[in-house]
Amino acid sequence: MRVLKKYPNRRLYDTKNSVYVTLEDVRQMVLVNESIQVVDSKTGADLTRSVLLQIIAEQEGEGHEPLLTNRVLQQLIRFYGDSMQGVLSRYIEQSVMTFLQQQELYQRRMRDVLSASPVKLVQKFADQNLAFWRNLVQKEQKEHADEAGQAKAGGAGSEPGVDAPRPPPLGPDVFDAKQQSTAGPPDSQKNAEESVDNGEEGKFDKGA
Q1: Which H or E run contains 6?
Q2: Mean pLDDT across the chain, nearest whole number?
Q3: Which of 24, 65, 82, 110 has the fewest CB neighbours in a 10 Å radius?
Q4: Structural domain includes residue 19
């Protein structure tokens, strides 16, 4: 902790470096997370709070948006002397510390992302995309293999040529026609042939 002495002329003396400092110097110490304590050079009273409030007032006077609005300051004034003053003080301190921790975690993550090599980031994204497409192709191949296996299993029990067209069954009329063709020509045809033969014989007899 750096101890600063405040003299009656309102000047601040840094006991560590043995030099006089300004409020801006004290603000820079606070920004680098350095703990400070301001004491009265004569009485040794702790003047840290008054100096820090003075720094905040100067920051707001320079145009920075105030962290503590007028409404909040009025509520804080009403809590002074109240039984809940100590509870509110611890609650505000814990809330600010939790917020700072979350902010530090977020900034650390952002630094990790920004400090990473662009080539490594591109390679990481490419690997993720490649893994995604590989999984998609494997899924498609598995679905096609399952469909082919189901089709093969469904056709294994069927007899070959079942679906082939078959000739129509033979009717009774076909069998009758076959019987007639094997039995010989009908009687009318036989009579016609006999008459032709007789005519030929008579013709030869007359000529003779």
Answers
A1: strand 2-6
A2: 76
A3: 65
A4: yes
pLDDT per residue as tens digits for the range 9-31: 889 999 999 999 999 999 999 99
- Rounded Cα distance between 110 and 196, Å, is 122
Task: Write out the two tokens for 182.
Answer: 């094997």
Task: Name residue 109's amino acid.
Answer: R
DSSP state of 10: S
Q: Which of 53, 33, 34 is nearest to 17 (CA)?
A: 34
Which residues partner with 36 through β-bridges? 2
Q: Which amino acid is at 42?
A: K
- Of 1, 57, 49, 4, nearest to 26 by C-alpha is 4
Domain that holds residue 6: 1-67
Asked if pLDDT for residue 44 goes beyond 80, the answer is yes
**Longest pairwise C-alpha distance within the chain:** 185
Q: Which residues contact 30 (CB under 8 A, 6 or more apart)?
A: 36, 52, 55
Residue 40 phi, psi dihedral angles, 5° rounding: -70, 135
The predicted structure's pLDDT at residue 173: 53
Q: Is residue 15 a part of any domain in this protein?
A: yes
Residue 149: per-residue pLDDT: 77
- Residue 44 gets the label, from left (phi > 0), alpha (psi -120 to 50) or beta, of left
Predicted local distance difference test score (pLDDT) of residue 206: 46
Count of domains observed in the chain: 1
Q: What is the mean pLDDT of residues 56-84?
A: 88
- Residue 173 in any domain: the answer is no
Look at residue 63 and tell me if it is in a domain: yes
